[in-house]
């Protein structure tokens, strides 16, 4: 099952991190500068207890390119 998180802010990043840590097929979509930054530095998720997880093997959808088929799309955007 392929899942796309549309909007990688605080909420989208948390959902993406939790699903990725559960071995789901997660793809991230956002504006081009944010996708480029995620491609370079990855996504860091900090748990409530202070432990952190660095996710560097991210599947990114670059705007202006062909978008693959997704089973679910989670919208995590402002307004």
Low-confidence stretches: none
Question: In order across it, which strands form the biggest sheet?
Answer: 5-2-1-6
Q: How would you classify the helix and strand content by structural class?
A: alpha/beta
| Distance N to C terminus | 27 Å
Largest sheet: 4 strands, parallel
Mean pLDDT: 91
Radius of gyration over C-alpha positions, nearest whole angstrom: 12 Å
Number of strands: 6
Tell me, what's the shape?
globular
Percent range for β-strand residues: 25-35%
- The helix-strand sequence is EHEHEEEE
Helical element count? 2
Structure explained in plain terms:
The chain is α/β, with parallel strands linked by helices and 79 residues long. 28% of the residues lie in helices and 32% in strands. The chain contains two helices and six strands; from the N terminus they run βαβαββββ. The protein has helices at residues 10-21, 32-41, and strands spanning 2-6, 25-29, 43-46, 52-55, 59-61, 72-75. The strands form two sheets. The protein has a four-stranded parallel β-sheet, covered by helices on one side. A two-stranded antiparallel sheet has the order 3-4. Strand 3 (43-46) and strand 4 form a beta hairpin. The protein is globular and about 40 Å long. The mean pLDDT is 91.
């Amino acid at each position: 099952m392929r899942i796309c998180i549309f909007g990688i802010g605080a909420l989208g990043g948390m959902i993406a991190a939790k699903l990725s840590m559960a071995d789901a097929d997660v793809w991230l979509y956002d504006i081009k500068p944010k996708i480029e930054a995620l491609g370079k530095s990855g996504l860091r998720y900090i748990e409530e207890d202070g432990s952190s997880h660095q996710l560097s093997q991210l599947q990114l959808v670059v705007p202006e390119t062909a978008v693959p088929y997704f089973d679910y799309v989670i919208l995590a955007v402002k307004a």
